[in-house]
Write a structure and sequence with these properties.
Elements (H helix, E strand, L loop, with lengths): L6 H34 L6 H22 L6 H11 L11 H11 L5 H14 L15 H5 L3 E4 L2 E4 H4 L3 H22 L2 E2 L2 E2 L3 H21 L14
Antiparallel strand pairs: 1-2, 3-4
């Protein structure tokens, strides 16, 4: 019987999935560190710093979803390939059937609500914007965040009180209000179109578990495991 996937091809595939998980983890870590910096010294950073921060978040989500999407070269396909092909690679019986099923259950959206919520976030917000989200009723008062009646001036939300402040104080107040609004929106987005989406720290649960699964099967065929190390990031 001919192999449909060689051991060499499988190594390339599992390394690709592992790389997506690794890069996802560190794009999210960079987003987290940049958010901490922005909150600590908000007035020191130009506007594009915030755009860069959110770009890391979106790339992290997209790479993570590749690893968990059953229609992509992801964890589920890697497990299925290994399960069906490893016996043709001249290897001993190295697989634990119970562990395989546990890993399959974890990585599929039908069996894992956290994976399903990740797919929901990717599909409805990042890759595609569902028109049912707009306009979206928020569960907090933007006026309270800005401290007054809202007006729109110079392409941004502000208030008359803020606009009458000296320039440096005005910019500081606007930046702080904008950041507080972003944090409130992030906190508010626990559900989209009636389905939950993951909290930020649950994304690390998915990167860590995905890498654990990759490493388990990499080691079984003699590939060095993935280490979550990046200089300057804890």
């Amino acid at each position: 019987m001919c192999m449909s996937v060689s051991r060499e091809d499988f190594e390339v595939k599992i390394n690709e999935v592992g790389e997506n998980l690794y890069l996802s983890h560190f794009h999210l870590k960079i987003h987290e560190k940049m958010t901490e910096e922005l909150n600590a010294r908000l007035e020191e950073y130009p506007p594009f710093f915030d755009w860069s921060r959110m770009a890391h978040y979106e790339v992290g989500i997209l790479r993570l979803t590749r690893a968990y999407d059953k229609n992509s070269l992801g964890l589920l396909k890697i497990i299925n390939i290994l399960q069906s092909e490893y016996r043709f690679w001249g290897l001993p019986d190295i697989l634990d059937a119970e562990q395989l099923e546990q890993d399959k259950n974890f990585v599929t959206s039908e069996n894992n609500k956290l994976v399903d919520s990740l797919i929901q976030l990717r599909d409805k917000v990042i890759s595609h914007t569902d028109n049912k989200l707009h306009p979206r009723k928020l569960s907090f008062d933007i006026k309270e965040i800005y401290g007054g009646e809202l007006i729109y001036r110079s392409n941004r939300i502000t208030t008359e009180e803020i606009e009458n402040l000296p320039r440096e104080e005005k910019e500081k107040r606007l930046n702080q209000a904008s950041n507080n609004l972003f944090l409130a929106i992030e906190k508010d987005k626990t559900e989209i179109l009636g389905k939950p989406v993951p909290s930020f720290y649950q994304l690390y649960e998915l990167t860590n578990k995905g890498i654990e699964i990759c490493n388990r099967y990499m080691q079984k065929i003699g590939i060095l495991p993935i280490e979550l190390k990046l200089e300057g990031i804890n």
